[in-house]
Design the sequence.
């Protein structure tokens, strides 16, 4: 198949998946809302335009929401590229936020250094946590998937234990820690909005991971192992080490995202359940087809829909959880290799015929 | 404190609660066994349980009849299994990803569906009537046996179905033609195909059975265990079931034993929760931690065995 046509086909296929998802959303809205018109407007238009002008505040909010899911999305990209179905992005995000938060509360530092240390610590702890499923996978060949799923819950309950019994601010009605020190906060990129410096960090991380995956030996090894593990082993790659590395990098990224989100968006640590960014990161990675460069775009799309669903629940009474159904539908069709396979078949046949004709012409030209 | 714990463990009520907690995990673990035998990993168990738990309650509410609810949950579960099959087998979505999508649907999606059908947000506690809950069964004769009686008798009818299903799934897999085909497809799809077994058909069947079994697990949760449906009702039981399948070496009886182990860990956790000096949160982590430890021990044992046979 010719490159350009293949690319076009992939684009159309992706769009078709999105159109199906939006169509499902339409049906659900028609069923659940008394004012479907308003609901649709909220979902599709109001995140950007409201009352005839640009909804600037909402746009910054969308960009702000992208931050954590870019990080988890990148992490999933790296792990899925190596064919490691590690699903502990949830737990490591929460853990990164918690550890980053503790340092932000208890260890005073100068303003510039403080958030950096918190975020780094969050990342390191996230990476260390991923060592558990990774090492168990490599040394004992036990499913990293089951292990990472269990790990999410173990991490969550351990954090809840410390949050409730050790670090809780008893003067508050709700369970939360003492406030973060001012020096530790990830400051706003634009004052008065939800957009923090974390967004730029996320874009930078995207660039770093893209270079890592496409321009370094380790990145190449990760992708090769994902394509064919046996071949990689016999061609002399240290498969075990690379598999562990891919999962640790995944943990580093989600831990980092968790810390940035906690310090950028809140004044104290108050997550009482898994934050959900890990799962959303998976949708992002699927949309991006495990290509780090596409992650911010996929994250933008999801953040936009998320914002739309939120507005819809405020103004049209449709529960914002509809986003999960839309995500699931996109997920299923996007990852479906055989979705629109007949069209692809037609393109392949057409290409082959053209090739043959060209060759024939060339051969006739040579004879003449 | 240790003595206190021991004295708590050696009570009939403790034995009773192990069985009560094990039941939903057992349904899902059997679901995992059937799917895995056919060579498809059904990680959507968690989501299927949540969705069918909700539909079970809704069906039971409409008819004010628990049996309709249970059957409804079973059918919805089987249907979801087939949907997973459609995407994984026909459209070639990676089966793991199809499972994750179903789980997404089971998370926030169910909250939306609940609102869509009833206008309620978050839980169905206000709908529950006694006729909607699966009845407890006192087994004649057995209930009069000292010690064993109070442990084994007086459970939900679904609990007995679950343990009966261990036998039925074993019979299905090892004593029927379909079971032979399921195992053949799981072990070597090409070989099965070459002798005329329709691999796709068998995998669809396995996923439908798997979905139906997890549907029953969901029904147990919402129509007995929690007495209503709420967000997060499944709380990782579908995932624990996957681990139970792995630890049980993919066999029905093995899956039952490992489900009982998790039941034991949870029941112990519940007992410890009330005692001073134990954090309820750390206790809640125990079943999940036990799962990881169990997985590690099992994997280590397997590797040792392989090394031995090589020598």
Sequence:
């Amino acid at each position: 198949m010719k490159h350009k046509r293949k690319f076009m086909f992939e684009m159309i296929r992706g769009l078709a998946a999105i159109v199906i998802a939006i169509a499902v959303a339409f049906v659900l809205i028609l069923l659940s809302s008394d004012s479907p018109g308003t609901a649709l407007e909220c979902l599709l238009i109001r995140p950007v335009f409201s009352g005839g002008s640009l909804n600037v505040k909402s746009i910054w909010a969308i960009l702000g929401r992208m931050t954590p899911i870019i990080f988890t999305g990148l992490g999933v990209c790296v792990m899925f590229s190596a064919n490691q179905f590690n699903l502990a992005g949830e737990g490591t995000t929460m853990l990164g936020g918690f550890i980053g938060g503790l340092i932000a509360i208890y260890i005073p530092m100068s303003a510039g250094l403080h958030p950096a240390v918190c975020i780094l610590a969050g990342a390191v702890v996230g990476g260390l946590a991923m060592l558990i499923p990774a090492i168990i996978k490599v040394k004992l060949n036990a499913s990293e998937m089951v292990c990472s799923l269990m790990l999410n819950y173990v991490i969550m309950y351990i954090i809840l234990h410390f949050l409730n019994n050790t670090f809780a601010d008893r003067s508050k009605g709700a369970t939360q820690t003492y406030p973060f020190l001012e020096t530790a906060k990830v400051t706003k990129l634009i004052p008065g909005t939800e957009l923090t410096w974390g967004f730029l960090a996320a874009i930078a991380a995207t660039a770093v991971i893209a270079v890592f995956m496409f321009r370094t030996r380790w990145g190449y090894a990760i992708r090769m192992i994902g394509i064919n593990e046996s071949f990689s082993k016999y061609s002399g790659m240290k498969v075990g080490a690379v598999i562990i590395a891919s999962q640790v990098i995944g943990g580093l990224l989600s831990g980092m995202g968790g810390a940035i989100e906690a310090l950028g968006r809140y004044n104290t640590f108050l997550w009482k359940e898994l934050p959900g960014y890990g799962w959303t990161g998976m949708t992002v990675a699927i949309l991006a087809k495990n290509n780090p460069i596409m992650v911010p775009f996929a994250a933008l799309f999801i953040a936009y829909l998320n914002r739309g669903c939120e507005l819809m629940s405020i103004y049209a009474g449709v529960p914002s959880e509809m986003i999960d159904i839309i995500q699931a539908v996109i997920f299923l069709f996007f990852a479906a290799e055989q979705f629109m396979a007949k069209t692809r078949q037609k393109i392949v046949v057409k290409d082959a015929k053209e090739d043959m004709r060209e060759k024939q012409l060339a051969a006739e030209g040579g004879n003449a | 404190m240790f003595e206190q714990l021991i004295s708590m463990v050696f009570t009939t009520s403790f034995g009773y609660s192990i069985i009560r907690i094990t039941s939903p995990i057992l349904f899902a673990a059997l679901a995992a066994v059937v799917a895995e035998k056919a060579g498809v990993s059904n990680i959507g168990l968690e989501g299927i349980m949540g969705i069918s738990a909700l539909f079970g309650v809704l069906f039971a509410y409409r008819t004010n009849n628990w049996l309709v609810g249970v059957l409804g949950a079973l059918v919805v579960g089987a249907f979801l299994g087939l949907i997973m099959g459609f995407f994984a087998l026909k459209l070639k979505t990676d089966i793991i990803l199809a499972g994750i999508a179903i789980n997404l649907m089971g998370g926030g999606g169910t909250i939306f569906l609940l609102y869509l059908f009833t206008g309620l947000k978050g839980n169905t506690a206000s709908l529950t009537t006694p006729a909607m809950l699966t009845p407890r069964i006192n087994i004649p004769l057995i209930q009069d046996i000292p010690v064993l009686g109070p442990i084994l008798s007086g459970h939900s009818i679904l609990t007995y179905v679950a343990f009966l299903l261990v036998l039925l799934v074993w019979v299905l897999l090892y004593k029927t033609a379909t079971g032979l085909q399921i195992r053949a497809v799981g072990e070597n799809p090409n070989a099965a195909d070459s002798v005329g077994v329709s691999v796709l058909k068998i995998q669809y069947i396995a996923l439908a059975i798997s979905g139906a079994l997890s549907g029953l697990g969901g029904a147990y949760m919402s129509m007995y265990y929690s007495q209503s449906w709420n967000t997060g009702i499944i709380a990782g039981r579908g995932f624990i079931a996957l681990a139970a399948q792995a630890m049980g070496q993919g066999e029905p009886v093995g899956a039952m034993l490992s489900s009982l182990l998790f039941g034991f860990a949870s029941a112990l956790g519940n007992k410890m929760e009330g005692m001073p000096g134990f954090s309820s949160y750390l206790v809640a982590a125990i079943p999940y931690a036990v799962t990881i430890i169990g997985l590690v021990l099992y994997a280590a044992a397997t590797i040792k065995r392989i090394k031995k046979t090589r020598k």
